[in-house]
Amino acid sequence: MMNEETKLELLGPLRCDGVGGMALAQHEGRRVAVRWFPLGGAGPAATAALAALPAHPAVPEVVSRGADAASEWTAFDYPEGELLSKRLVLGALPKGDVLAMGAELAGALAALHEKGVCHGELSFESVLVARGGRTLLIDLLPLVANRVTDRRGETRALAALTATVDFFSPERAKGGAPSAEADVYALGALLCAAGAGRVEAAPAIERLHAIVEGVYRPAVPVALDGDLGTMLATMVAPLPEARPSAAEVERRFRELLTPDPFQALLDSKQVTANDLAPGAEPTIDDAVLRAPTRVDVQPYVPPEAFRPEAPKPLPLVVVAPELIQADPPIEARPTTPTKRPMVVAPPPTIPELRAVTPPPTAPRVPGPKRSGLASAGLLGWFAAKNARLGSVAGAAALSLLVAVTVLGEYQARAADHAAAQRKPDGAALEREARQRLEEAAPSAPSPAELRKGKGAADEF
Questions:
Q1: Pairing between strand 62-67 and 30-38?
Q2: N or C: which end of the chain has fewer CB within 10 A?
């Protein structure tokens, strides 16, 4: 349907919780919402209340108003975007977004409070995040219209309790009327929930009793710490007089958004030489501050105390040629090798050997024929040395030597065996051993015997 006079093009119905109705329309290429009221009621008062709302970027602007044969209507700004409840489905808002949103909404509430208007029903459904990041209190105008025209205000408030109870202040939960302090509390609770991404789910009546009894209070999330968290904790204070005003909240949030106040003054062009008080020293104009400045870079020159001293030149010495004498010639002399005395190492020192006393055992007594064996051996050795080996006498001497040796060894073993069979007597054994040693000691042959033996050998 097209209204030729107002140039409104209705696009479809919108939800309306009060008297009359609301529809989505387009006005001169602008997306708007049209709220109409029946004639004969409080329509004129409602349209007048909507037209008296303050102008603010976060408050929808009234673009047109009028009447026809059946109703009175008001058209206000309704841009495209998404409600905060749908935006939080993606997760919590960053700290910077929470700060920017809080500054815009606090400014809108401050403008309303200055006009004596309170919102009273802030919730996730109240905030629209338009394209481009603009934030609006999208339900403000329908809410004000319902308060003027609807006689079922308490019933309507109870119907909306499910969406708004999480942001009720203690005085509102006890049945108090909407107030500026309650709006500040609701805004603080809403920003805490936006920074956390959610609100603890609880039945509306249970949450209402928890707020009244002081059991429930919005918690500031860790992500919103620092000055922002301190401000939010002050906004949700239980006592209304302990909370700041909406104007103070906006100012503080703006300061946090712009940490450098001098830069903010430059951006707003409030610092110029013409704005100075009389008698004050002039400062650089804003245009001069923004103009590019050429910086001449000079080489660094250290102070005198740190400059290193230049090296001093060495003195030049000039010598007369007649004073220079040639070195005498070097005589070539044959070198004689130096004989070094040979150093003989001393023989190694042999340690003194000491006899080790064996354990006492029975002495072995040689047989009675050992002396004969020794004498036979000695005679055989003497005959073999002085006789010719190829002669008969030499052969006979060797045969005799072998026989005597075998017989003597046999007799010695037999004597040893017999001595081992009888019980040895120490004294007797010692006497026998000495006797045998004396018998076994050979006596040197006399010269006559040697001559006689040599003559016998010559005869052979």
A1: unpaired
A2: N
CATH topology of domain 2-77: Phosphorylase Kinase; domain 1 (3.30.200)
Partners of 429 in the beta sheet? Answer: none
Please report, for the chain, the start and end positions of each structural domain, with discontinuous segments joined by +: 2-77, 81-266, 370-459
**Per-residue model confidence as pLDDT tens digits over 81-132:** 899 999 998 889 999 999 999 999 999 999 999 999 999 889 999 999 988 8
pTM: 0.56
Distance CA 96, CA 35 (A): 35
The CATH superfamily assigned to 81-266 is Transferase(Phosphotransferase) domain 1 (1.10.510.10)
Tokens matching residue 429: 């054994």
E strands, 307-366, where? none
> Pseudo-torsion of CA 226, 227, 228, 229, nearest 10°?
60
**81 touches 131 (CB < 8 A):** yes
Distance from C-alpha of 120 to C-alpha of 457, rounded to nearest angstrom: 164
Could you report the per-residue pLDDT of 126-168, keeping only the tens digit for each? 999 988 888 999 989 988 888 888 766 666 667 678 888 889 9
Judged by DSSP in three states, 223 sits in helix
